[in-house]
UniProtKB/TrEMBL annotation:
Classification lineage: Eukaryota, Viridiplantae, Streptophyta, Embryophyta, Tracheophyta
Family: Belongs to the PPC synthetase family.
Protein name (Swiss-Prot/TrEMBL): DNA/pantothenate metabolism flavoprotein C-terminal domain-containing protein
Encoding gene, per UniProt annotation: A10p040810.1_BraROA
Pfam family name, one: DFP
Organism of provenance: Brassica rapa subsp. trilocularis
Residue intervals of the DNA/pantothenate metabolism flavoprotein C-terminal domain: 46-92, 167-281
SUPFAM superfamilies listed in its UniProt record: CoaB-like (SSF102645)
Entry superkingdom: Eukaryota
Length: 314
């Protein structure tokens, strides 16, 4: 039996993927955004923040799919902090998940935030004014200043094709670019050409599905797509006992600059940044109710990125 090499697995994944819809449109937005942030005397740092989980369709005309858990909170909060730190952010997010500047809004903002004092006026309930103001003003400012480009994905096929586009487009930004990979990416999938076209029929007993392994794109991102970019990946476990060991192995295997290790149930309280310079525990300031772990995490990552840029120029 012949086994495929890593590069071959990657090319065969892309060759058999359904083509990305609106690719021209995405490329145009992306190149415009990068151009704006790298020209006219500007040399802003650009970070690609990935956020939310990828789906694995079980049918080509998809009715059923497998999903990876992620609310998108980490990615959204991190994006806000990167913008605050002066970065331009390409926010590659799962459709429908948490958005930057919207974390304090209720689940159904349209229905819960607004009121109509009369037929021709609309008002925001006083209890939501601050949250709505932040959502609208901060997000509009970030977009208007070309600090934020939002690109949605749903499937693993879309996610990996878009990540490749972004990485390739950012190649010339070199060490000033960063990948902050907080999305929860499927490890297993159904290859497009072995997937049934129509809805899987029910009524004939249990369903057996064989899932193939998603090729390890992180290696290719590091070695080929954007070798000079600063690269942060995430490791999620539910068993705290194996977390640091798994993160350390990922650091060595993928040669990323740091792995952010988090345990599902405590992920909003603390993370551990694992890198060749040792492990650093980063916590939320528990004495401040509005403090989030991303405030301290992004400060540390930005610091590390600055050192990386300095070292690359010397
Ligand atoms: C993470 O570990 C993220 O921190 C979370 C954030 C998904 C836990 P939320 O979106 O949660 O705020 O609800 N992301 C990476 C998850 C992942 O699938 N990592 C892979 C792994 O651990 C490798 S890249 O094997």
């Amino acid at each position: 039996m012949s086994s495929m090499g890593e590069d071959e697995e990657v090319s065969s994944f892309f060759e058999s993927s359904p083509p990305l819809k609106k690719m021209e449109d995405i490329l145009q937005k992306l190149n415009g955004f990068i151009e704006h942030n790298s020209s006219g005397g500007r040399r802003r740092r650009i970070v690609c923040v990935t956020s939310g989980g990828t789906t694995v369709p079980l049918e080509q005309r998809c009715v059923r799919y497998i999903d990876n858990f992620s609310s998108g909170n980490r990615g959204a909060a991190s994006t806000e902090n990167f913008v605050k730190a002066g970065y331009a952010v390409v926010f590659l997010y799962r459709s429908g998940t948490c958005q930057p500047y919207c974390r304090s809004l209720p689940d159904d903002p349209f229905l819960e935030c607004f009121q109509f004092p009369d037929n021709s006026n609309i008002q925001v309930h006083s209890s939501h004014v601050e949250a709505v103001k932040m959502a609208v003003m901060d997000q509009q400012a970030a977009v208007a200043e070309a600090r934020l480009l939002k690109l949605p994905f749903t499937t693993i096929y879309e996610y990996l094709q878009m990540l490749r586009l972004i990485a390739t487009a950012l190649k010339d930004v070199g060490p000033c670019s960063m990948f902050y990979l907080a999305a929860a990416v499927s490890d297993f999938y159904v290859p497009w050409n072995s997937m049934t076209e129509h809805k899987i029929e029910s009524g004939s007993g249990p369903l057996d599905i064989r899932l193939a392994q998603v090729p390890k794109m992180l290696s290719i991102l590091r070695t080929t797509w954007a070798p000079k970019a600063f690269c942060i990946s995430f490791k999620l476990e539910t068993d705290a006992k194996i977390l640091i060991d798994k993160a350390t192995k990922a650091l060595g295997k993928y040669k990323v600059h740091a792995v952010v290790a988090n345990e599902l149930s405590t992920r909003k309280e603390e993370v551990v940044v694992v890198s060749s310079s040792g492990n650093v525990v980063v916590r939320r300031d528990s004495d401040k109710p509005e403090s989030i772990v991303e405030d301290n995490l992004i400060r540390l990552i930005v610091d590390r990125h600055s050192t990386y840029i300095k070292e690359s120029h010397s």
